Amino acid sequence: MLIRILFLSLLLVFPAGAQGLLPSSAQTEESRVAEGSEESAAAVDDLVRILEDDAARAALIERLKQAAPENGAAEEAEAEAGDLSIARQLAEYTQGIAEGASNSVRSIGSALGNLQALFDGTLNADGEALRQFAINIGLLIAALFGSFFLLRLIANALGRMIAARVSARGVAARITGLLGLAVIDVASILLAWGLGYVLALNFGTTSRGFMGINQSLLLNAFLVVELIKLAVRIVLEPRFPALRFLPVTDGNAAYWSFWSARVISLLGYAFMFVAPMLSGLVSRPVGGAVEVLAMATAVTIGIIITLQNKDDVRQWLGQISERRGNDGFGQLLAAIGRFWHLVVIAYLVALLVVWFANPDTALPFMIAATMQSVFAVLIGSLVVGFISRFVSTGLSLPDDVRQRLPLLESRLKSFVPAVMRVVRWIVIAAVVIAIGQAWALFDFASWIGSEEGLAVAGSVVSAALILLAAIVLYVVVASWVEYRLNVNFGKVPTSREKTLLNLFKNAFTVALVVFGAMLALAQIGVNIAPLLAGAGVVGLAIGFGAQKLVQDIITGIFIQFENIMNEGDVVTVGSWSGVVEKLTIRSVTIRDLAGTVHLVPFSSVDQVSNMMRGFSYHLAEIGVSYDSDIEEVKSAMHEAFDRLMQTEHKDEILDDLEMHGVTGFGDSAIMVRARIKTLPGTQWGTGRRYNQIIKEVFDERGIEIPYPHVTYVPAAGGGASKSPPPAGRVEDQSEDSAD
Predict the structure, then answer these.
(1) How far apart are CA 353 and CA 363, in angstroms?
(2) What confidence score (pLDDT) does residue 72 get?
(3) Of 270, 532, 549, 603, which residue is the least packed, with the fewest Cβ within 10 Å?
(4) Full DSSP string of 112-137
(5) Which residue, 638, 616, 625, 632, is CA-closest to 687?
(6) CATH code: domain of residue 548
(7) Distance of CA 363 to CAs 300, 371, 433, 490, Å?
(8) Span 169-186, mean pLDDT?
(9) Tens digits of per-residue pLDDT, 361-408?
(10) In sequence order, what DSSP letters do the residues of 453-508 get, joined into one string?
(11) Which bin fits 717, alpha (ψ -120 to 50), beta or left (φ > 0)?
(12) Same domain? 662 vs 605
């Protein structure tokens, strides 16, 4: 029954450095206050206890052997030190693991034997000291935890009031409320701790103003344990969800708070109070047995918790991976979700084995490395989370900037997420490096501080800055070209400016990519001279093998110099006519009247006809009947032009109607021609409206616009017949005839 009570009283775990708090080398309270004449007797008693204990005696013999090695053993050690083969290092590593596991099993067996000896009464213990300890500790426990329970009730009531007042308010109010609640909880812990010291100094079996060392151990353990538990409660806040900032459910917050509190209490009170107390009152082996039992229990609880949450964590990480579209980072999270529990269990078992094997040096190292790793992962997660939220939220420019630079927002949305993804992987790499540094897998700090490390880091940073500067320069130049081509702001660009600015942007982008890549490669130590020479050879080979491409480029250069066409012009290039949509150094893109896009390489262009250079003409060539009065026709055409000048097309007409007169005699009409001078590109709209007005004026004046038509005349004597007549005559009624 007593061992069950002891086990249940130790159910709590937090491997955060309690081993460093264990006063394993401290002497007992009685030996510290004893007179100098009794020190030698206490030392003899300690030696007797060591010799009586098999494990302690074996450890003492081993240390004595190590203190006086034989010459042969020393030579063998030197030989082994000189042998740095991978096989020997692997053998030494596996040997250490096997010895650690063996020592772990031996420690557990020794601990259980010591506890059995304690409960069987075979170990000697000072009965009076136990009686005084029971009285003092009993009073202190009752007063300490009783007062703390009452103070916690008051703190919870105040916390409910604070949570109710800030639940519907902003983040600042919630932070203030959380800080206020933390202050109240800290005050309750300090009040209970202070009250415990007052009671320990004034009540019990010790003289007033004095207290036993075990009472001080309990009070200090209480302070440290409750403050750590308070820190966990502030983060999870299972009592008041309105004050919780961590994105977890109420059930998860209560679950993790419950088990964290018990783990913290288990290790805290076991290592800081129970084990030192039993070491002083009974024997060191008994105190060590309690430590072994507490550590094994804590690791067991950790493994059980890990297995309980295996599927939940895997599903949570899988959902994150799906939300990210199973990208590279998402696949990494999914892989971690499948195997995380195995890693955690292996870590807990390794922690237990290392603690059993070498608690003085290995355990503090593992605890420090673990805390550094957790801190690195936490900081990296916050940074990666911020970057992911920034990328998912996107950029939103002000309306004024969006109007001036319509393409800037889309351009930034294409560049910024890519840069942020690179930064995210850099952060992940930094976290991995920090974890490796914490576990002494490699000494990155020393390497980065060396000349080689500084040179490599400087080269990488310089290359990254060059690439970043190239991206920024591209965005700036592209935005300037976009602003210059924006017809809503500043000077309206001409067709020539549109063409040259687009060509400049394309050429600048190509040059920037080439020179930026070359400079970045040069910064990281790549010799770019062979690359330049190779590029020249490749260019020469391309020139011979792709003569058509070279011809396209050369012809395009001369076309640009001669300025025969620009974007927006209506041209005829080869056999294609239409509007120039895009003009590069190699080809021209034309959209015809039917909307079909034609890509015409300059090597196939023999001539270019531009219909929009300087000014244009609408050529009105009208056919009238042979019996029409030509002067009347000219007057009608002038009247139509006067009516045209009263329409919206008047601003497009540059001169008066240019009358050419009769230009030809057709089979059924006389051709009368006039010409209207217009702004370039407006001749078609002006001409269509002028033709419409010509038709109206000719109808009003009775001027006939002849057109070919036929009349069917049956043969003589033919009447209505069910079958077509065998023969007949077809006459052009537009001609004068005897019929």
Answers:
(1) 10
(2) 45
(3) 532
(4) HHHHHHHHHT-S---HHHHHHHHHHH
(5) 616
(6) 2.30.30.60
(7) 17, 12, 22, 71
(8) 86
(9) 766 777 788 888 888 888 887 887 777 666 655 566 666 666 666 666
(10) HHHHHHHHHHHHHHHHHHHHHHHHHHHHHHHHT-TTSSSPPPHHHHHHHHHHHHHH
(11) left
(12) no
Asked if 423 and 415 touch (Cβ cutoff 8 Å), the reply is no
Print burial letters for 434-457: b (CB count within 10 Å at least 16), e (below 16): bbebbeeeeeeeeeeeeeeeeeee
Residue 254 placed within a domain: no
Q: How far apart are the first and last CA of the chain?
A: 140
Do 431 and 515 lie in a common domain?
Answer: yes
- Coil, helix or strand for 361? coil
Q: Structural domain tally of the chain?
A: 4
For residue 548, the enclosing domain spans 536-613
440 and 518, same structural domain? yes
Distance, CA of 23 to CA of 288 (rounded, Å) = 11
Confidence of residue 339 (pLDDT cuts 50, 70, 90): confident
639 with 695, same domain: the answer is: yes
pLDDT at 312 > cutoff 90: no
Distance CA 652, CA 678 (A): 5
732 assigned to some structural domain: no
Are residues 150 and 9 part of one domain?
yes
3-state helix, strand, coil in the chain (%, to 5): 70, 10, 25
Q: State whether 666 and 689 are in the same domain.
A: yes
Strand partners, 664: 671
CB 16 within 8 A of CB 371: yes
Q: Which of 149, 130, 107, 119 is nearest to 2 (CA)?
A: 119
Residue type, 149: F
In a domain, 55, yes or no: no
Q: Are 599 and 672 found together in one domain?
A: no
Strand partners, 629: none
Q: Which amino acid is at 57?
A: R
Question: Does residue 52 belong to any structural domain of this protein?
Answer: no
Full-prediction pTM beyond 0.85? no
The CATH number of the domain where 635 resides is what? 3.30.70.100
